[in-house]
Specification:
By secondary structure, this protein is α+β, with helices and mostly antiparallel strands. Helix content is 28%, strand content 35%.
Length: 176
């Protein structure tokens, strides 16, 4: 009787052990896309009342990107709210262009808002048109450009230092 009982238990156990082993499924980690490189080709000094070419070269991993969305945002210093967005068009080999005209001396700024392959990059360039009286140029609001970077840096510094110092003080009190 004991032999039958042992046989009833042993045979299914052996059959389970002989089953086909399945390899664990490993998921590939998604590859991080390479940074989108945007080089502004527009001159930093231009003449007034002449057509200006706004231009940017877009590449990723050393390959020209010919299917990007490029918008040039242009505004006079201190007048960001009065700026304009100008759609860039692919010329060739990853170079996008648009045109504009500055009708008076001044300091202008341009962002080349560029999106391709799920990545956005927006380099900024200062453009001096004609010979502006620099004492009349309104300063740019640096808070707008730097606010996110400063907030991220301040947040990470505050929390990490506070946590480390707080833990260290607790450990010192526990050891005394």
């Amino acid at each position: 009787m004991k032999k039958w009982l042992l046989a009833l238990i042993a045979v299914p156990a052996l059959l389970v052990g002989c089953g086909e082993k399945k390899e664990p499924v490993t998921l590939k980690e998604p590859e991080m896309p390479q940074m989108l490189e945007v080089e502004i080709l527009t001159p930093k000094e231009v003449a007034i009342n002449k057509t200006i070419e706004l231009a940017a070269h877009v590449d990723q991993g050393g390959k020209n990107i010919d299917d990007a969305v490029v918008e040039f945002e242009v505004w006079e210093s201190g007048k960001r709210d009065e700026g304009q967005m100008i759609n860039g068009k692919l010329e060739k080999d990853g170079v996008y262009k648009a045109t504009t005209t500055f009708d008076h001396d001044g300091v202008y700024y341009m962002y080349a808002h560029t999106t391709a392959n799920g990545i956005h990059n927006m380099p900024k360039q200062q453009i001096t048109a004609g010979t502006p009286d620099m004492t009349q140029v309104l300063p740019e609001d640096k808070k707008t450009d730097d606010s996110m970077n400063n907030n991220m840096m301040n947040d990470s510094n505050d929390t990490s230092e506070g946590t480390e110092n707080g833990d260290q003080e607790k450990n010192e009190k526990n050891h005394h």
